[in-house]
Design goal:
There is one protein chain. The protein is mostly beta strands and 255 residues long. The protein has a single domain (2-26, 68-252), classed as 3-Layer(bba) Sandwich (Glucose Oxidase, domain 1). The chain is 9% helix and 29% strand. It contains 3 helices and 15 strands. The chain has helices at residues 125-132, 166-174, 197-203; strands at 2-7, 10-15, 20-21, 40-43, 62-65, 74-76, 96-104, 107-108, 121-123, 139-144, 163-164, 179-182, 214-217, 228-236, 243-252. Helix 3 links the parallel strand 12 and strand 13 (214-217). Helix 2 (166-174) packs parallel to helix 3 (197-203). The protein is globular and about 60 Å long. The model has no long low-confidence stretch (mean pLDDT 96).
């Protein structure tokens, strides 16, 4: 299934039969953060209905309890930090984007800075500039190294996980990057007194909020996916909320 796509005055070919899924399925043993309990899936059981074939019901009919920010791959809008709801259901003007996958080994912060504590592991502005180069894409996908399968099931709570320098997020915004995807639970420090400096910088909030820009967290980019350009198909569940589970799919491009 070969498709020919014109985007930004360039023409690409992609093989639709070879998707590269960089989402993490949501399930009780999946990754979580922000001190949340594991997500839960359980059948509806009451005096009128048994929502489990195994338990004698006619159909499987489950309730699912989760938090989109805490469990698995999710995409969020500026509504994550704004007073007013900016719903993810209308947060994307289209679903195909030219994206670049980059791999970065986080650096150890040598001293305290704005929103940074000495000893933290951070993705820096200099690293992003070097990895992306002069040809700035519409979307950037950051794979942090080492890239272990532990990301598929990690409990990030109370771990002081890797995050982005606020200057790095600001540079991405200033460079016109619309969609930022990371294999981290947040682009900000776990404990930062609620400042969320990188989120504010990327969305340029509250000065001139970038309403169509999104951040996707907790992706997993397998080592088989090489650094480079791809077409990104960013699909997001239609929740009326600032964030929702998402399934970003990459397609290798040819010209």
């Amino acid at each position: 299934m070969i498709a020919r796509i014109e985007l930004n005055q360039q023409t690409f070919t992609i093989d639709l039969s070879k998707p590269l899924d960089i989402s993490i399925p949501m399930h009780p043993q999946g990754p979580r953060a922000w001190y949340a309990d594991p997500m839960r899936i359980s059948p509806v059981l009451n005096q009128y209905f048994t929502g489990s074939v195994k338990l004698g019901g006619k159909v499987n009919f489950n309730d699912i309890f989760f938090n989109p920010h805490a469990h698995g791959t999710h995409t969020e809008t500026v509504g994550h930090i704004s007073r007013d709801l900016v719903s993810i259901e209308c947060g994307l003007e289209r679903y195909w984007w030219l994206a670049r996958v980059i791999s970065v080994t986080p650096e150890r912060a040598a001293s305290d800075g704005e929103g940074i504590k000495a000893g933290d592991t951070i993705v820096t502005l200099a690293q992003l500039k070097q990895a992306i180069g002069a040809d700035i894409p519409e979307a950037v996908i950051i794979r942090t190294l080492p890239n272990t399968s532990q990301k598929l099931q990690a409990n990030y709570s109370n771990t002081n996980f890797t995050y982005l320098e606020a200057q790095a997020a600001q540079w991405l915004a200033d460079s016109g990057v619309q969609h930022l995807l990371v294999d981290l639970p947040s682009i900000d420090r776990e404990e930062d007194q609620g400042k969320l400096l990188a989120h504010h910088a990327f969305w340029n909030y509250p000065k001139q909020p970038r309403m169509q820009a999104t951040i996707t967290e907790m992706v997993f980019v397998d080592d088989a996916v090489a650094d480079g350009l791809y077409l990104l198909n960013l699909q997001v569940a239609a929740f009326r909320n600032d964030a929702a589970p998402s399934r970003p799919i990459l397609y290798a491009v040819g010209e």
